[in-house]
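Re: the pair you flagged

First of the two:
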Amino acid sequence: MDDRAQALAHVVRGGTVESVHRGHLVALDGGGSPVLHRGDPDVTVFARSTLKPVQAVAMLRAGLDLDGELLALACSSHSGEPIHVDGVRRILAGAGRTEDDLANTPAYPLGEDVGATWRADGFGPSSLVQNCSGKHAAMIATCVAAGWPVEGYRAPDHPLQESVRETVQELTGDAAEHVTVDGCGAPLYSCTLTGLAHAFARLVLAEPGSAEHRVAAAMSAHPEWVGGIGRDVSAFLSEVPGLVAKDGAEGVWAAALPDGGAVAVKVLDGAMRPLPVVVAGALRALGADVPDDLGRRPVLGGGEPVGEIRAVLA
């Protein structure tokens, strides 16, 4: 992966390139043909939380009965804000379960402000506020709906996770050659970067009423439930009409436009800071009207702008 990577972004300070973020990128047009790439578009990656919308498709197909904001929450890496915590409890209550059934790794809220408040109030790491709790609550609700055991729902050989793997392979078009454990404790399957872009395109192009379309509609309509206050992914969903987008740990992003144009990015060093700039540039290359503020990240000196992060896509 390292030998094939190319520069995706320059960090420019005082007119001089101070740092370089390298990685891989692919942008597909509405017909699925590549129109832009950096590095190796067929590199195999762990897409981390960027795969959550695909996991949600598997859950809907298995009988999960969610739409709207709660389905968006099932696709989220939420900030742990009160609406998110309440939403997780609502998903669990609808399945006759409680937060005690959550098996995701306890953590502090992802949102900086809400995390500080959580700590100041004397609370420790919790599965309820951990950013993947929406997905895990939906997994539990899916097990109840399908008649599968809730206990052990994270195991790779559990029927839920087998269904997720099949759906990942179907929508990406890739064999899940590598299987590991994500930060939240759920199984994680590999795919190629191009496969990830194809999966997001399939979400936006799906027939109304399908599981894929329901996921796309929920995420596009409820940006604050996918991320949270001040989160880049929520800003993109809010400001680019019809966009479906998801961020993931270790420098992964994917997004798709209503016409099926799609982008997938992996930053080699795992940094998240260049992603809004790079994704904005790639979406513009596909003809999207992306507001300037979404693709601008200043570099500060003494609290004042002295440079910027610039996408390298040519």
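Second of the two:
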Amino acid sequence: MARSRGSKIELTAYDDLFQTDESREEAALSKIRDIPISEIDEFPDHPFKVLMNEDMEQLVESVKRNGVMTPATVRLKEDGRYELISGHRRKKACELAGLETLKCEVKELTRDEAIIVMVESNLQRSVILPSEKAFAYKMRLEAMKRQGQRSDLTSSPMATKLQSGRSDAELGELVGESKDQIRRYIRLTELVPEILQMVDDRQIAFRPAVEISYLSEEQQYTLLEAMSYNDATPSLAQAIKMKKFMQDGKLTDEVISSIMEEEKPNQKEKPAFRDERITKLIPKSVPRGQEADFVVKALEFYNRHLQRNKAHER
């Protein structure tokens, strides 16, 4: 029986009909599909934090109503499980929403290509902590340098060969930072966790933190104690001074304490109280150095209140 001219052979359906299970699985690697969350592993040493804040609450509600609108990106590992490259917040939102699968796009990527994609996708966030930039830049720069040593990665812009001396400049151009700023951020990875957290919390300024990063781990912990005792963080001048003493081999515990006890222009006097029972009752709006005045006025007011009560009782 002759086939009419208007009819068409559906090659895709024909191919699907004779595909083996293995070939179907291989074809699916390039498609977007739902993957059980239990089969997805976190990216090793992922530098970006998944914060449980108001934005996450809104994302969870959105996932409950509409599902995941933008697929996460994963790659298939040798053990048959998946590695999450981008979409860590979406994965967490799905878990909190009670979903068992995550909509993903599976990509075939090498370890270094995965690092580059992971960093690029997360640098699109509106808010990025200094520690996140620090470790992200470090991971990406190392990946770019390794790619520059290979000859089989010249087919895409991500795989451009790089001379090691130019890598930080190349990275700076890609992320919109100067090569010196890239180096400063990467220096933050040398900070002990407690001081790095203070940088994220904006308790220590960026530039002093870079100078502090040159101190040894032991010296940084000594500095941490001195900061706690003096209830102050080092200025840029103080941080540079400590670095200079360290380079000269003269940065002792006593020197660190002495530098931190120096009076700074914006620090007229040290806090009058260290007892948490008192400090937690002092409003944050009270200027530094005026805590004692506030407490005295509060006590005067309280004494007047007691005197009025006694007068009424007579």
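The chain has 15 helices and five strands.

-B.
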